[in-house]
Specification:
Layout lengths: L9 E2 L3 H27 L10 H29 L7 H37 L5 H8 L1 H35 L5 H57 L4 H37 L3 E2 L4 H21 L1 H21 L1
Helix pairs in contact: 1-2, 1-8, 2-3, 2-8, 3-5, 3-6, 3-8, 5-6, 6-7, 7-8, 8-9
Length: about 325
């Protein structure tokens, strides 16, 4: 496309804007998630004991959050420090790798949140269909199998993306001395382009499926809890404390659904526009990386608020810090 033509239209995010948005949120999120690891390894006295399945899912979320925000900081380092120390082609491969690590880490977050919703759905909602009854009886195997399949899918796609980046790197940096070599490189680029196109469609299909299943299971859980709360209220056997707990549960699940829906849809739309529209959109990948980073940051804050072990740990640390300040004063 000719940049001077009237049809040319570019939308992108500058490196400085990316750093201003992502560095503060990434620093806060990394510290919080490291603290979450401490809370999981060294639980506080009287803290709620999570089931092993939930511990695995929480661990998956924490690991992916740390990975995403570490990658965000690494992108900033590449732009402002490493760029002057390495070859431009190697920098291209490194940024390519970082972007896809972030993308597949976010997909794992979506999968883990979906599995958590499925677990709560099976525990809360009375099940009548044989399929859901089977899932409830085999929930441990179902969760572990889903996580293994997700990891396998992400690692395979990551290998494909790295291979594609290496092919492009060889084309950009290699010396072509004959027509046969030129034809071989063009064939490699064509094959790589076709594989990457299939990879994009697989990612989009995976994301759409995860969004759909998350919305269905979460909406069913919220609907059941709301209907159950209303029925118990009418019976007059509903304490104020239990009512607050159920309302808070409904609000938390609804907020998580909206968060996953908005950020996942934003990521999907960004990737569709960037790959299939005539707009020269997000050519450096900073917009989609920012969406992924913000999704992970909001997930971290949600875990700090909704998970009692993390919330109580933060309150305890704040109380100790406040007492320390009062003693110094």
């Amino acid at each position: 496309m000719n940049p001077n033509s009237s049809s040319y239209f570019s939308v992108a995010m500058s490196a400085k804007a990316f750093a201003l948005v992502n560095v503060p949120s990434s620093a806060v999120s990394i510290l919080l998630n490291i603290f979450f690891v401490y809370c999981m390894v060294v639980p506080q006295r009287g803290a709620e004991q999570l089931k092993n399945i939930l511990k695995v899912l929480q661990g998956s979320l924490v690991a992916c959050n740390i990975t995403i925000h570490s990658c965000s900081i690494l992108i900033v380092l590449c732009d402002f420090v490493i760029r002057d120390l390495t070859d431009v082609f190697m920098l291209y491969v490194l940024l390519h790798l970082i972007f896809y690590v972030m993308l597949y880490a976010m997909m794992t977050i979506v999968t883990s949140c979906h599995l958590k919703n499925t677990f709560y759905f099976c525990q809360i909602v009375p099940l009548q269909q044989s399929f859901f009854i089977w899932i409830k009886k085999n929930i441990r195997a179902f969760v572990y199998t889903a996580l293994i399949l997700n990891a396998t899918f992400c690692l395979f796609c990551l290998a494909v993306d790295i291979s594609s980046a290496i092919v492009v790197l060889n084309f950009l940096s290699g010396q072509i001395n004959s027509t046969d070599e030129f034809s071989a490189v063009l064939n490699s680029l064509q094959i790589s382009s076709n594989i990457e196109l299939v990879d994009i469609f697989c990612r989009l299909g995976y994301m759409f499926l995860s969004i759909f299943v998350t919305l269905v299971s979460g909406s069913a859980t919220v609907h059941y809890l709301w209907r159950h709360m209303k029925n118990v209220e009418e019976s007059g056997l509903f304490s104020a404390r239990l009512q607050r707990q159920m309302k808070m549960t409904i609000i938390n699940i609804t907020a998580q659904l909206l968060m996953n829906f908005l950020f996942s849809d934003g990521t999907v739309i960004t990737e569709i526009v960037a790959n299939f529209s005539a707009v020269f959109f997000d050519w450096n990948g900073y917009i989609i990386c920012t969406l992924i980073s913000l999704h992970s940051f909001v997930t971290t804050i949600s875990m700090a608020v909704n998970q009692s072990a993390f919330r109580n740990g933060i309150v305890l640390v704040w109380q100790k810090f406040s007492r320390l300040l009062s003693l110094n004063n």
